[in-house]
Amino acid sequence: MSSVVSRYNHMLLKQPLVTNMISTGFLLGTGDVIAQVFFPQDPDQPFDFKRNLRAVIYGSIIFAPIGDKWYKFLNTAIKSPWKRKVLSERTISTMMRVAVDQLVFAPFIGIPLYYSAMTIMENKQPYLENIAAKFRTSWWVTLKGNWLVWPIFQWFNFYLIPVQFRLLAVNIISIGWNTYLSYIMHSR
To answer: Which GO terms describe its cellular component (predicted)?
Structure first.
């Protein structure tokens, strides 16, 4: 196991974007497999390999590059303006990063991007009408679910995890989250 972690760390340092693309695609695909196997829309529903491939493509080609840049941006651009008042600068910076992540990225980038990209990849035409319908039925319920999981996790992620490992940490927790997203995407 330590050789796998060592190899992953080496790849992450040498080729961070490619490594994040592979791991994110794999983990989004894993979340979709869990959703299809354990939470099918219909008990007799066969496994949908195309749906799973869409999840892998979304994770690797669409979300991973954005997530990689997002976590680097948060780490460099969002910093406490206060130096050692009541709380430490690190604590304040972490709280600010979580706030920006949860009040900007999740509602206005992450969730809309997922539903838009998946609707387009499913070829649900007319695209704009179907994307708007998905937002009406799923955006708020997804955002509320997001706020039950991610603020606490992201606080620990931003506070404890080095920036190069943050997307991986998110991806590991995202196995459950991606199961939820896949379930919501295909049930409403």
So the answer is: membrane; mitochondrion
